[in-house]
Amino acid sequence: MFNPPFTDPEQAEAFIRQYHAELPGTGDPEPRVAEVLDEISRTGTYRHTGEELAYGARLAWRNSARCIGRLYWRSLVVRDLREVGSADELATQCFEHLRLAGNAGRIRPVITVFAPDRPGRPAPRILNSQLVRYAGYPDGAGGWIGDPAGGRLATRAADLGWKPGEGWFDVLPLLVQERPGERPRWYELPDDTTLEVPLSHPEYPWFAELGLRWYAVPAISDQTLEIGGIRYPAAPFNGWYMGTEIGARNLADADRYDLLGLVAEELGLDTSSSRTLWKDRALVELNRAVLHSYQEAGVTMTDHHTESERFLRHVAQEQRLGRSTPADWSWIVPPISGGATPVFHRYYDPVDPRTRPAFVARVPW
Ligand code: ARG
User: Fold this and answer.
1) Which one of 97, 147, 245, 255 would you pick to mutate in the ligand 1 pocket, going by the greatest count of ligand atoms within 8 A of its CB?
2) Counting Cβ atoms within 10 Å, is residue 103 exposed (0-12), middle (13-18) or buried (19+)?
3) Per-residue DSSP letters for 199-261?
4) Among residues 61, 162, 186, 240, which one is catalytic?
5) Which residues line ligand 1 (CB under 6 A)?
6) pTM of the predicted model, to two decimals?
7) By alpha-carbon position, which residue is closest to atom 6 of ligand 1?
8) Which of 66, 164, 220, 304 lies 20 to 30 angstroms, CA to CA, from 268?
9) CA distances from 254 to 22, 144, 147, 244 (A)
10) Residue 93, exposed/middle/buried by CB under 10 A (0-12, 13-18, 19+)?
11) 127 alpha carbon to ligand 1 midpoint, in Å?
12) Nearest-CA neighbor of 244 among 341, 335, 340?
């Protein structure tokens, strides 16, 4: 009936076999393989059991070659919300995701899996790149107010009727598109979903006066979760932050908040030559402020030294289980002090882009 089938039967079979091979107590894969193949030939696709879905999502994390935090892959909390059909309910459940993940500061890794694409029935999409992100507005002089990475979504939301703010840290609304060609709907995030941390420095009182802040839960929402040939285009997931993501990238990158000059000035550094290492010194103090502030606020965060060690423990543990841990060196090595962390001093198994289950770039409708 479906030719070629909507869902690749080879992918389906490979996943079911891996699931049974890795999980003791799941028994003989053959009956389930036969059932799945039959379902695909009749309907074009198949439905994962709750356990297959949960394990598949954890495997997608384990396979994420750019993630340094994979030691905890087994602990991922999987919310099965495949039945959610409307944009309204999807938004409500994204908010509930943020509350569960934020957990008053004790961040829990969570994924919420919404409906998969089915033959003739594409699933809803979340248009935001993360559930929580700050808006960016062009300042009219070639610069930005807020996060330039949130510039496009801010424009898009404004076109749909969202009233933009004028601040440096305005949380963007959630944009959900129920069907191809349909006008996306926007939803303001309720206050109790967006835990944020005001940034201060352990030694410099002036730092708090800068009025910087960041949110607690990094929840990626623009990647498709692919398991056994089934695509879940709306499957937001989160871990907790490593300090450098904020202190050495979001607040420091020239095309993001670009704050190194300001911090160096406040520190009274000599910025007349790159050889004074003013950028490096500003980076260190910015990163100290981030780690200090999250700790003070009781919000889970890790530092790049600790996380590097944990990652190598994960690689060793996987090796003992007879599995390799493909990794992308350029993403695993932290953006400051690379050589001071153990992950710098070695190479990793090469990444095969065909590996599944995986989080992949969002597919167009
Ligand atoms: N680097 C991204 C950000 O700063 C988040 C990526 C996921 N990070 C994580 N710790 N799970 O917003």
Assistant:
1) 245
2) middle
3) ---SS-THHHHT--EEES--EE-SEEEEETTEEES---EE--EEHHIIIIIITTSTTTT--HH
4) 240
5) 130, 218, 220, 239, 241-242, 245, 250
6) 0.98
7) 218
8) 304
9) 44, 11, 11, 15
10) middle
11) 17
12) 335
Which residue from 128, 197, 241 has its CB within 8 A of the most atoms of ligand 1, so it is best to mutate? 241
- Tell how far the Cα of 218 is from the centroid of ligand 1, in angstroms: 5
Which among 198, 194, 191 has a CA at the least distance from the CA of 296? 198
User: How many other CB atoms are there within 10 angstroms of residue 357's CB atom?
Assistant: 25
pLDDT tens-place string over residues 157-207: 999 999 999 999 999 999 999 999 999 999 999 999 999 999 999 999 999
Q: Could you identify the residue written with the tokens 């059991």? A: 49
* 8-state DSSP, 325: -
> Who contacts 182 (Cβ-Cβ below 8 Å, separation ≥6)?
none
Q: Does the annotation mark 70 as catalytic?
A: yes
Angle at 62 between CA 56 and CA 65, to 5 degrees: 125
pLDDT less than 50: residues of the chain? none
Give the span between the Cα atoms of 227 and 53, in whole angstroms: 8
Distance 250 CA to ligand 1 centre (A): 9
Of 284, 261, 290, the C-alpha closest to 336 is 284
Work out which ligand 1 atom sits closest to the CA atom of 240.
10
